[in-house]
Amino acid sequence: MSNLYIIATPIGNLEDITLRALRVLKEVDVVLCEDTRQTQKLLLKYKIDSQTLSYHQYSKLNKINKIIELLKDNRNLALVSDAGTPGISDPGNMLIKYLIENKVDVKIIPIPGPSALTSALCVSGFPTDNFIFLGFVPHKKGRQTFFKNIAKEKRTVAFYESPHRIIKTLNSMKEYFPEKNIVICRELTKIYETIYRGNSEEIIKKITPDQVKGEFVVIVG
Ligand code: SAM
Questions:
Q1: Which residues of the chain form CATH 3.30.950.10?
Q2: 2-111: what fold?
Q3: What is the 3-state secondary structure of the chain?
Q4: Which of 52-66, 100-114, 140-154 is predicted with the least confidence, judged by mean pLDDT?
Q5: What is the distance between the alpha carbons of residues 161 and 147, in angstroms, rounded to a whole number?
Q6: Under the phi-then-psi rule, with left for phi > 0, alpha for psi from -120 to 50, and beta for the rest, what region is 103?
Q7: Domain at 116-220, CATH class
Q8: Ranges for all domains in the chain classified under CATH 3.40.1010.10
């Protein structure tokens, strides 16, 4: 039976990779990537010349069939995403679900490491023994309900947001739960890493227009 390793990769700083992840990336026959150019930066740094194959949300069935063929051919594969742990709010999840539902004969093995979610939670200072993760904020449909539910939530809430919508989201948080404490983690592990703490109004005042760039995780206390 072949192995499919689900490998966590850095969320910014290329040093954040485990020794096991590097060994397995070297040993596998093919590395399935969300974006091969992104993964090549990591492979190049560690002088890993394993073959890569792109796999993303919009991959057609023939790409999945190619992956299944490789597995049937007893090839060992690694799955990585652009950053962090594959399958946590990214396309990796779809491949894993497909393989399980279609009873493909493969051993699925996690190689743990960085995730934007756990990196943000661990510095939040909010209770993390009982939290919920909501993925990305809905753009239109369900947006109001999303914030109304957080307003009622007793547990710590974590979600992802893009730079284009972070100010809009802060304004929605100000509208629905102005009193709640929030931690915004921007560009974790990267040069412009910034952690903003306070209620939404305080954070809106702290974020300058040039800081509305990069990647964000929002934690609501
Ligand atoms: N599976 C990934 C993980 O485990 O971290 C998350 C994938 S999701 C498609 C990408 C989102 O994660 C970004 O839009 C951003 O919200 C968050 N993210 C990724 N890297 C980040 C970083 N360095 N700092 C803050 N947020 C980050």
A1: 116-220
A2: Cobalt-precorrin-4 Transmethylase; domain 1 (3.40.1010)
A3: CEEEEEECECCCCCCCCCHHHHHHHHHCCEEEECCHHHHHHHHHHCCCCCEEEECCCCCCHHHHHHHHHHHHCCCCEEECCCCECCCCCCCHHHHHHHHHHCCCCEEEEEECCCCHHHHHHHHHCCCCCCEEEEEECCCCCCHHHHHHHHHHCCCEEEEEECHHHHHHHHHHHHHHCCCCCEEEEECCCCCCCEEEEECHHHHHHHCCHHHCCCCEEEEEC
A4: 52-66
A5: 13
A6: left
A7: alpha beta
A8: 2-111
Q: What is the pTM of this model?
A: 0.94
Which single residue is written with the structure tokens 């991959």? 59
- 42 CA distance to ligand 1 centroid (A)? 16
90 lines ligand 1 (CB under 6 A): yes
* Nearest ligand 1 atom to alpha carbon 116: 5
215: left (phi over 0), alpha (psi -120 to 50) or beta: beta
Mean pLDDT of the chain: 95
Distance 159 CA to ligand 1 centre (A): 10
* pLDDT tens, position by position, 47-98: 999 999 998 766 667 788 899 999 999 999 999 999 999 999 988 888 999 9
